[in-house]
Amino acid sequence: MLNKEKAKQVIDSLPNDVSMDEIIQSLYVNIKFAHAEKEIREGKGVSQVKAKKKLEKWLK
Question: Residue 19: left if φ>0, alpha if ψ -120 to 50, beta else—which one?
């Protein structure tokens, strides 16, 4: 899907009274999720075990 079409789809899924900041946030989150999904498909993801080890110092 082309970027412009995807942006339109994201915007169309939002309520009519949405603010410009909420539109920008929704587009940003959508881009980040798409990027993460692509990395996972390419085998660049981090396993749950590795993620826990990396976050261990923050979870204590």
Answer: beta
Number of domains forming the structure of the chain: 1
Domain that holds residue 30: 3-59
Residues 29 and 21 sit within 8 Å (Cβ to Cβ): no
pTM: 0.72
Q: Is the pLDDT of residue 47 over 90?
A: no
Q: Which residue has the tokens 């204590």?
A: 60
